[in-house]
């Protein structure tokens, strides 16, 4: 069965591009437009195997979203990849310190993103 990826990004263009890349690799994809929408989708879907999240989003940002996911036992072990335009060292360190498994800076190379996601999924 295909692994299920949740993409959380307020940019429709980014969501569509990342979804296209992931679907091409055989993944099932669910998209959300911000952290609140991401939590709703996470709670309502059967099983999410990996999350790709932006940091800067309205309503609920990626930092709050990731912290919320990590605080819940049922979702604590889901690999999380941050995909953000924020590429300063302190941004990356903050993302990793709150529970992201990987931090990629936009625009990430599709091959590199896929390779890292497959590695995180085992």
Protein described:
The protein is of the alpha/beta class and 122 residues long. The chain has one domain (4-120): 3-Layer(aba) Sandwich (Rossmann fold). Helix content is 43%, strand content 19%. The protein contains five helices and five strands. The chain has helices spanning 12-24, 35-44, 62-70, 89-97, 110-120; strands at 4-8, 28-32, 50-53, 80-84, 102-105. The chain has a five-stranded parallel sheet with strand order 2-1-3-4-5, with helices on both faces. Helix 2 (35-44) packs parallel to helix 3. It is globular, with a radius of gyration of 13 Å. The relative contact order is 0.18. The mean pLDDT is 94. Residues 4-121 form the Response regulatory domain. It comes from Desulfolutivibrio sulfodismutans. InterPro entries: Bact_response_regulator, CheY-like_superfamily, Sig_transdc_resp-reg_receiver.
Annotation keywords:
single chain; 122 residues; alpha/beta; 5 strands; 43% helix; Sig_transdc_resp-reg_receiver; CheY-like_superfamily; Response regulator; Bact_response_regulator
């Amino acid at each position: 069965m295909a692994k299920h990826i949740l993409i959380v990004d307020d940019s429709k263009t980014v969501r569509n591009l990342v979804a296209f890349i992931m679907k091409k690799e055989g993944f099932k994809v669910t998209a959300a437009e911000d952290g609140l929408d991401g939590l709703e989708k996470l709670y309502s879907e059967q099983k999410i195997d990996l999350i790709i999240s932006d940091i800067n989003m309205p309503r609920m940002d990626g930092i709050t979203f990731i912290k919320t996911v990590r605080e819940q036992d049922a979702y604590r072990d889901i690999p999380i990849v941050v995909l953000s335009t924020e590429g300063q060292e302190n941004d990356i360190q903050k993302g990793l310190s709150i529970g992201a498994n990987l931090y990629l800076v936009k625009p990430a190379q599709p091959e590199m993103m896929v390779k890292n996601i497959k590695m995180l999924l085992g």
